[in-house]
Amino acid sequence: MGNRKASGNPGFYLGSILLLGILLVFMVDFFLGNPLYYQLGEYTAEEDAFRAMAFGEGNLKEILSMAGENGLSAGEAACAFMVEADYDLTEEKDGHFTYRSWHSLKEAIEKRKPVEFSKLSEAYETVLSDIRCFPIPRGDSEESRCYGYSDSWKAERTYGGERYHEGTDIMDIGNGRGFFPVVSVSDGTVEHVGWLELGGWRIGIRAPGGAYFYYAHLDSYDHEFFPGEKIRAGQLLGFMGDSGYSPVPGTVGNFDVHLHFGIYLRTDHYEELAVNPYWILKYLEEKQVKYSY
């Protein structure tokens, strides 16, 4: 009589199966119905995945076009799609960047993490809201098309100690220092100008939305800029060169002629945090201003 086992009780089995089924449904809902939980946090804008700005070929154009057509900010449009893709759209080819899909994603994310979504949207807005034109204008000569660039984000650099590359280098191909004009990609205000050991003759412009656009290794400036000077998108800043990698102002020739272009934003823990400009530059290729050279 006192030796009956729970394993022989059909009710025990039924209850266990029911409990297991409820747990399974919960897990499926969590991992499939809520795939956005783990990759969106309070400080996502400081993490490598966000900073890579991995929009992929043509996707940023589609996203910003959809945003403009529907009265959305660039930041909130980009944020929903990037979060859903775990911050990497480089393999995305099917053009699903519609208002309907964006709205569905936004609702799903905000249902679970409204504060974090808003904060990350603001970070994307800072980076994207003021970009207007490619930093090298379109010329009218064959030589004006002789430049190139690749995704060198986080490539190793050694001058001044071990570090990684925080920008994109637009390389001159055969023309030499002083040939290519360099223009501002945005409206803004000059924040820093003059010689920097790493950057040579450089100029840094703070855009209205908060992004800091950095142009380094110039051969010369268009004129004597001063901090606080207002700049317009497409305005001539100077000419591509090979200055820098020396504490001595005017040093040239330590590397090939190129423009180092960087994008920085302020975050909770960093005054200047770099993001990868490569896919943003790919988007801006279709937005070159016209110069005669």
UniProtKB/TrEMBL annotation:
Keywords: Hydrolase, Membrane, Transmembrane, Transmembrane helix. The keyword Nuclease does not apply. Its EC number is 3.4.-.-. It is an enzyme of class 3 (hydrolase). It comes from the Bacteria. GO terms for molecular function: metalloendopeptidase activity. The keyword Ubl conjugation does not apply. Residues 164-267 form the M23ase beta-sheet core domain. The chain crosses the membrane at residues 12-32. This is M23 family metallopeptidase.
